Amino acid sequence: MAGSTLGTMFKVSTWGESHGKGIGVVVDGCPAGLTISEEYIQTYLNRRKPGQTKYSTPRKEDDYVEILSGVFEGRTTGTPISMVVMNQTQRSSDYSEIANYYRPGHADYTYDSKYGFRDYRGGGRSSGRETTARVAAGAIALAILDSLNIHVSAYTRSIGPITIDYTNLNLQNIMQSSLYMPDLNASAKAEDFLLEKMNESNSVGGVIECVVTGMPAGIGEPVFEKLDANLAKAVMSVGAVKGFEIGDGFKSASMLGDANNDAFHYEDGTLSKETNHAGGILGGMSDGSNIILRAAIKPTASIARTQHTVNKANKNIEINIKGRHDPIIVPRAVVVIESMVALTLVDLLLQNMASRLDKIQEFYKN
Amino acid sequence: MAGSTLGTMFKVSTWGESHGKGIGVVVDGCPAGLTISEEYIQTYLNRRKPGQTKYSTPRKEDDYVEILSGVFEGRTTGTPISMVVMNQTQRSSDYSEIANYYRPGHADYTYDSKYGFRDYRGGGRSSGRETTARVAAGAIALAILDSLNIHVSAYTRSIGPITIDYTNLNLQNIMQSSLYMPDLNASAKAEDFLLEKMNESNSVGGVIECVVTGMPAGIGEPVFEKLDANLAKAVMSVGAVKGFEIGDGFKSASMLGDANNDAFHYEDGTLSKETNHAGGILGGMSDGSNIILRAAIKPTASIARTQHTVNKANKNIEINIKGRHDPIIVPRAVVVIESMVALTLVDLLLQNMASRLDKIQEFYKN
Amino acid sequence: MAGSTLGTMFKVSTWGESHGKGIGVVVDGCPAGLTISEEYIQTYLNRRKPGQTKYSTPRKEDDYVEILSGVFEGRTTGTPISMVVMNQTQRSSDYSEIANYYRPGHADYTYDSKYGFRDYRGGGRSSGRETTARVAAGAIALAILDSLNIHVSAYTRSIGPITIDYTNLNLQNIMQSSLYMPDLNASAKAEDFLLEKMNESNSVGGVIECVVTGMPAGIGEPVFEKLDANLAKAVMSVGAVKGFEIGDGFKSASMLGDANNDAFHYEDGTLSKETNHAGGILGGMSDGSNIILRAAIKPTASIARTQHTVNKANKNIEINIKGRHDPIIVPRAVVVIESMVALTLVDLLLQNMASRLDKIQEFYKN
Amino acid sequence: MAGSTLGTMFKVSTWGESHGKGIGVVVDGCPAGLTISEEYIQTYLNRRKPGQTKYSTPRKEDDYVEILSGVFEGRTTGTPISMVVMNQTQRSSDYSEIANYYRPGHADYTYDSKYGFRDYRGGGRSSGRETTARVAAGAIALAILDSLNIHVSAYTRSIGPITIDYTNLNLQNIMQSSLYMPDLNASAKAEDFLLEKMNESNSVGGVIECVVTGMPAGIGEPVFEKLDANLAKAVMSVGAVKGFEIGDGFKSASMLGDANNDAFHYEDGTLSKETNHAGGILGGMSDGSNIILRAAIKPTASIARTQHTVNKANKNIEINIKGRHDPIIVPRAVVVIESMVALTLVDLLLQNMASRLDKIQEFYKN
User: Fold this and answer.
1) What b/e sequence results for C283-305 when a residue is b if at least 16 CB atoms lie within 10 Å of its CB, and e otherwise?
2) Which of A70, B141, C238, D331 is such that its CA lies 20 to 30 A from the CA of B18?
3) How many whole angstroms separate alpha carbon C346 and alpha carbon D173?
4) SS (H, E, C) C30-48
5) D278: exposed, middle or buried (C-beta count within 10 Å: 0-12, 13-18, 19+)?
6) Quick one: which residues bind NADP(+) (chains A, B, C, D) (predicted)?
């Protein structure tokens, strides 16, 4: 069935395969009057682009986004915004070998199980390259949030065993670190660790953390469309993500009630919480404090080591995946997680406008 | 906006407040021809019912389910199945006090922020009592899965610091343990821990694990409607859940690629994996091995200890929540998680039927 | 698949069969703060109730609506509103005969084709009795519209060959006519015609017209979610409706462009149209003038005349449907059409709130 | 809100403005294994292309479709199919004048009302040019139907006052008539009528009829997702459509019950109906006989005659729309209606697969 569309009010539909003609996205439901440009979208795509540092694949991907519709005289018109990144080079030949077996940790086998065959070139639709389209859409969502004074910042929390020290955390550092770690000390250690594992032809995982500031209280719809439930779905829909947490997450499972509850406090005309174990969400709705979430990313599945697998003729074989691949997905996925969070927030902010009759009456009075 | 409906093909809509006239659910899209009865649904509700053991609230809730539509001569007709559990007693008076302040860890403040006021009786719509409706719907989903030889088993993995030992794990034990722990040794220790914390008027969290056997490969829709993304949303939509993992989850973030990849293997006419770090899902689709997931549950928010909070007049106050509450949510939530997993699987199994033209042609040939 | 839910923001899910335990509806996404009561809903149900005049079935249906959730202290809370009309009497025995053959003009054959069997008692789910639930939900939508000064009036335009004369049209007359015709002259003639056909054991069709006043301009979403497209779907989803028109409808197909276009005009601070051939909708959005639509209703399928059909053993048989049935559906369907229009308008009014960034910014500033 | 997506299982999202960079569509949920090519899609686009006859605008639109994703080695892969028709020339200058006033019968005023401003070039998003994208998607739906032996044929039933004579109707003639009328006699008369009105700088409307053969019984979901309700929405979403009928449609409103009911008949192993007043749909589901529907198309709104309207400065003005426009929309809309019908049928055929447990069990047994 159709699975490439996200959102209800703010609807994002991606398309494209790794080695097809291009990757694209249609954003439908974007409010009219938002200023955007190809240059603005491009700055987000550049954060995801490979070949930026020695920790990402040296494959050259010159991803230039083109806006094909929905923007007139620099502003969104309220109609669908179609964006496309054409593939510069389509080299299918390199992938003839992997057409015949199932790479461990990849979606080759499951695509074949579902559809009977697959576009095997570079992973086809299951390639991380699909996230280019998500980032282009995410840039639009982030611009909307920005206009509402809501800010989303994702960064690398840990790489393998190396975790940031929150006393060293400085969000200004994110862009200084080639691994997008806001603790430059930890970043340096993580680089060493990563180089060591790269030299062993192995790959590494990590955790991405994301903080949202400025969210008004009451966003998210009770029961099944809770804010945290929607964030979980959006984040878990990113390829290599294996876990999701909000606030204290799994740690809260071993906490006691008196330590886990966040006391409310009123001062200087503002209600706030003394702590934020809940990660900014109570009963599935934002509570006005910062939203904090984490995503666990598994190590890259493609490694240049001998692995066991099965080919399409049902033979047990040994393989050695050629080509150079990212030894870690985490840094490039940071902007993807940021995008997924932004897309979710915008959708729920728009849904929330219909919650109260008095506000609806006021809206239609003007 | 409307947030009380889950699913696309198999659509579940719950309604009702803790202390209203009743709690109910409409299941639309249930295939025709399934044998169900009120007695069958009731067995699932009984697993969620309070007052069963000393670790749950002694409140008496005689939850009897009634099927109002969609079943004729013992079988589902394909039309909506409406089920209701009427509340036996509606005592609003007990809750007059909490009407005026925001309980820490609860949704009081966020409901007021969103809607301008709230049904404060027993938590209203945000009460865990709403999950009664999910379990009734889940029982139907579990019956469909059973008819397809797919089985879902949830159990308590940990209570506070006490975790089951997988060498002692025996799924037959789940029902022997009053905490639904499949390791009776751990269960006994957890009971002691729980009693100790209850005596200190505190509350405890834990982790629920769920295993699915018999899933065919290829279920789940690529990109945004991945199986794991949908499971995450469904599980995170349960009140006190703060984290979700699939397979090795957060642990995989600190693993190396060669250890995290599951090798494929072919033997005796069957393709399988040598390990299952992925938890049965690759590229967002089931891979034919067991699906394994976990949910982190925070400690019960209602505790009989003095807490700081704010009242509706914006005064900082001290409160002490009266009444006796579950010292732990985990055991009663086990069947809720099982239900949410089942609802998600059925929806995606039905969606998957439209994936291949040859199978559609075969379907309509008969 | 699930087909009993209508709407995106304002979501209505009906359930129940003609001779089951009851009929009900869950309204999810109703804004908080609307004043409603069972008495208010009941006034709408009474307009649909049979046995009111000699032109409707003398079957006694004492339909009393009960609100089970979503209303607290007389106001909607923003959470699902569950309403139920329990069936007073469940007499299945009367329907044993029709279990075995397919009534012409009814859904017996198509239900069996789809589901393999059917609840044959009184038409089961396909019975017009399901519209009780729509009217209960419609009453809520009409209350919301009323609070926004938008008014929906449906009435009988024609019965068989007798059509109202617009020079005699007076909306105040609707309730004076037992056929809900706003031209009492035509109403009297239609009554005569109807009695004549009743005496011949035949049945009669007609056309219902609906006028909406007070709609702001710009409601409806371009392309597939146009206002007229959604109205068409909602109206055509009512059992016996075979045609739908907006404005001049089919007549416009034989008009010339200069006669069909409505000129815009500005006077006294207001932009309006000199004519309204378009029926208040341009490009799928309301244009600020009255919305006018029509639904063609076929004659009642159940008639006490000998008819040819086929039984479940594939024998060609002659049947004579027992019991007394409405000789015409039109008058009782008037409030159903009004309800379907109201449900559609509310959903699109809520969707429209997210159209412009400046208005969203203003909304979240307060 | 997002309104440019149609369908649940088979999801079609169009984008693009008349004078933007291009028009496109993403088809998500297309079953894997369907053979399609750009050449095949192009044959459908050619039927919609202007400049084919003297009755359509002489504007040259060289619409070449390009498939950007979702097809591998000539077959659909199950992932989104992105198709684009780039605009060859983007001449905005011609449209500077209409930027400042509201054309009667067009969506200029309603777009401004909704979004605050509009892309005025050639009607922007509201242009009939958007239907190019629908036809490209429709071609895929028609190929799926073809593989299931279901055939959809739309044609012109009437042009102004000239209606086809059903005794002369021959579906083979459709392509012989430059107006797509299956009665060549009527076609010749309609051509004369059209030329006459063109010379008077006026425009003409008409009725399109569509017949579907080969539909299995039981397709369509009861209550709100009825087959006829979905067809109505899909057809009414096409720009100039003002009315929709199924079977006898508005005529049935003046028929008597005994004449309107279709008797069932069994012969030679097949159940059929003696007549088809119902147009192939009973209770919202296909009944196995031909589906027959009609759409009323208003005369083209753009005419080269003096018209009254209002400009953006709220002045009453006289205008005379320049450029040459189609004097009639009907012939070019025939393939659009065919497409909308096909898209709806495919979506409901796929949804229907989940109706019965025994068929689901059989599906998953293999």
Assistant:
1) bbbbbbbbbbbbbbbbbbbbbbe
2) B141
3) 46
4) CCECCECCHHHHHHHHHHH
5) buried
6) 48, 54
Q: What is the mean pLDDT of residues D139-150?
A: 98
What Å distances lie between residue B361 and D32, D117, D147, CA to CA? Answer: 12, 48, 7
Query: What's phi and psi for D202, nearest 5 deg?
Result: -110, 175
The domain D5-365 is placed in CATH, from the list 3.30.360.10, 2.60.260.20, 1.10.3210.10, 3.60.150.10, at 3.60.150.10
Exposed e or buried b per residue across A14-44, where buried means at least 16 C-beta atoms within 10 angstroms of its C-beta: bbbbbbbbbbbbbbbbbbbbbebeeeebbeb
**Residue C305 counted as an annotated binding residue:** no
C-alpha to C-alpha distances, A197 to A51, B248, B250, nearest whole angstrom: 18, 20, 20
The interface residues of chain A toward chain C in range 261-290, judged by CB-CB distance below 8 A, are none
Q: C315 a known binding residue?
A: no
Query: How far A23 CA sits from the closest chain B CA (Å)?
Result: 13
Report yes or no: D80 at the A interface, CB cutoff 8 Å. yes
Residue B242 has pLDDT above 90, yes or no: yes
Residue from D136, D15, D4 nearest D71 by CA = D136
Domain boundaries, chain D: 5-365
Q: What is the ipTM of this complex?
A: 0.97
The answer, yes or no, to whether residue A89 has pLDDT greater than 70, is: no
Give the pLDDT confidence of A28-78 residue by residue, as tens digits.
999 999 999 999 999 999 988 766 666 666 555 678 999 999 999 999 999
D83 SS3 class: strand
Q: In this complex, do D1 and A20 lie within 8 Å of one another by their Cβ atoms?
A: no
For residue D15, give the nearest of A7, A82, A117 by CB distance: A82
Residues in chain C within 8 Å Cβ distance of B24: 26, 68-69, 82
**Residue-level length of chain B:** 366
Is C217's Cβ below 8 Å from some Cβ in A? no
Phi, then psi, of D363 in degrees rounded to 5: -60, -45
Nearest to C15 among B22, B70, B118 (CB): B70
Instruction: Give chain C positions within 8 Å (CB) of A359.
Output: 363
Residue D5 at interface with chain A, using a CB cutoff of 8 Å? yes
Q: What is the mean pLDDT of chain B?
A: 94
Closest B-chain CA to C9: B1
